[in-house]
């Protein structure tokens, strides 16, 4: 039997007992798996019968065996694929109604870890495209220079292939003197943080509509609870009925713990007088505590509670830099822990401990975590400039931004710094 090969609009499957067997591409387009295997077995059986051969004594049994294998593979694969799709849909629904673990433009994560992407978030804002790992370095370099200076690309390629004007006029280097001051960087940080705020507001509106089924502009705790449990695989009607009848829900320990934490957070987002009904604005605070001073305080209390070892409701340096739970087993682990201590010590001493008394109060931590705090934005701007300011002139210049591009964008472009003037 020869290998299959394409002949015109037909597919030459094989030569069997001197006769060529074909199937048209139309057959293949109908069903590339089981349907085709059946169709081809049928065709081969017809050829065998036409030539006076026993269709079950030659090629046909092998085709039918192949059909069985493919059908078995197809049948066994189908539930897994459907299950995976349901799981992905469930995960997506759960992400939409749960407060996010990560808050863009906020210095600390919900668990008290440093936000490793903070500098990229406040430098790039929402516009992170073009700095992916597989992005072309030259294009990334040009985009970084456009962000740096008020130089604009006059002609850009639109998605439809037509020439258009780039309307972006706001750049880090406002006065176009070829360098960035701390004040200019501060203004830029505030603008990029505002972008993240606007994005969070837009997403929260969508999520609010998803958990407000009656559209009355308020979401009760029970309404939210039903949606959350549905995202965990529970039946919506059964859960709603049990809640109405005040019947006990059969929940695993982990789900129950998550619900209790969410209810605490729900209470905090519910502005006085408390009624356990969240408006759209309160729901935004529930998902994004950085949008509410009261919820920011709650987030700070949670972090202090987790890190405070002596119960004085403030953080000493040893408490703040305490290693995560776990044992260092090798040098790589030791290096990671050394980096953890070094980074948190610098953050504590340089930025969080405002009065440098060796202790961080809740008020200090709250000010530090407030993304719209202008004083903190200025301090952050000075820190960001200091990282790349090789000539020590308290300003950032194009060569320095490119050399330290990984700090600002997450992409390494230093090999191209010598060509920076090509972009001007």
Describe this structure in words.
This protein is mainly α and 424 residues long. The protein has helices spanning 25-30, 34-50, 59-97, 118-124, 137-148, 182-211, 221-231, 236-244, 253-269, 280-287, 293-307, 317-320, 331-352, 362-369, 374-388, 398-403, 405-409, and strands spanning 5-7, 10-16, 19-24, 156-157, 163-164, 219-220, 277-278, 315-316, 359-360. The strands form four sheets. A three-stranded antiparallel sheet has the order 1-2-3. A two-stranded antiparallel sheet has the order 4-5. It has a two-stranded antiparallel ribbon with strand order 6-7. The protein is globular. It starts with a strand and ends in a 15-residue tail after the last helix.
What string gives the helices and strands in order? EEEHHHHHEEHEHHHEHHEHHEHHHH
Q: What portion of the residues fall into strands of 2 or more residues?
A: 5-15%
Q: Over the alpha carbons, how many angstroms does the gyration radius reach?
A: 31 Å
Q: Which term fits the overall shape?
A: globular
Widest beta sheet: strand line-up: 1-2-3
Query: How confident is the prediction overall: mean pLDDT?
Result: 75
In whole angstroms, the N-to-C terminal distance is 66 Å
Largest sheet: 3 strands, antiparallel
Helical proportion, percent range: 40-55%
Q: Structural class of the secondary elements?
A: mainly alpha
Count of individual beta strands: 9
Assembly state of the chains shown: single chain
User: Regions with pLDDT < 50 over 5+ consecutive residues?
Assistant: 1-19, 21-92, 151-169, 416-424
Give the helix tally. Answer: 17
């Amino acid at each position: 039997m020869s290998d299959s090969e394409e002949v015109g609009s037909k597919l030459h499957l094989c030569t069997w007992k001197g006769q060529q067997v074909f199937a048209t591409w139309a057959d293949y387009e109908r069903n590339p798996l089981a349907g085709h295997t059946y169709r081809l077995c049928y065709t081969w059986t017809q050829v065998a019968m036409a030539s006076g051969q026993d269709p079950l004594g030659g090629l046909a049994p092998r085709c039918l065996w192949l059909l069985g294998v493919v059908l078995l593979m197809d049948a066994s694969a189908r539930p897994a694929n459907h299950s995976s799709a349901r799981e992905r849909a469930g995960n997506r629904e759960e992400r939409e109604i749960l407060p996010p673990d990560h808050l863009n433009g906020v210095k600390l994560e919900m668990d008290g870890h440093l936000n490793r992407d903070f500098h990229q978030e406040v430098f790039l804002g929402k516009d992170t495209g073009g700095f992916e790992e597989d992005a072309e370095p030259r294009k990334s370099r040009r985009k970084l220079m456009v962000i740096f200076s008020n130089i604009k690309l006059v002609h850009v390629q639109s998605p439809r292939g037509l020439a258009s004007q780039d309307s972006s006029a706001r750049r880090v280097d406002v006065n176009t003197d070829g360098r960035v001051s701390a004040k200019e960087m501060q203004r830029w940080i505030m603008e990029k943080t505002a972008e993240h705020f606007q994005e969070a507001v837009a997403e929260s509106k969508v999520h609010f509509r998803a958990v407000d089924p009656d559209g009355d502009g308020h979401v009760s705790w029970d309404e939210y609870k039903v949606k959350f449990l549905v995202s965990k695989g529970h039946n919506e009607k059964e859960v709603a009925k049990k809640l109405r009848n005040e019947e006990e829900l059969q929940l695993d320990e982990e789900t129950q713990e998550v619900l209790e934490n969410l209810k605490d957070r729900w209470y905090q987002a519910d502005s006085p007088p408390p009624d356990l009904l969240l408006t759209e604005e309160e729901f935004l605070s529930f998902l994004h505590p950085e949008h509410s001073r009261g919820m920011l305080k709650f987030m700070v209390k949670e972090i202090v509670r987790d890190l405070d070892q002596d119960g004085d409701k403030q953080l000493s340096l040893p408490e703040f830099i305490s290693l995560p739970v776990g044992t260092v087993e090798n040098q790589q682990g030791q290096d990671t822990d050394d980096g953890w201590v070094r980074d948190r010590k610098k953050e504590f001493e340089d930025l969080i401990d405002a009065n440098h008394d060796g202790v961080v109060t809740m008020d200090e931590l709250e000010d530090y975590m407030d993304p719209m705090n202008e004083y903190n934005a200025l301090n952050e701007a000075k820190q960001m400039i200091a990282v790349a300011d090789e000539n020590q002139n308290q300003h950032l210049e194009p060569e320095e931004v490119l050399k330290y591009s990984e700090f600002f964008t997450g992409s390494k472009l230093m090999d191209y710094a010598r060509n920076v003037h090509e972009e001007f």
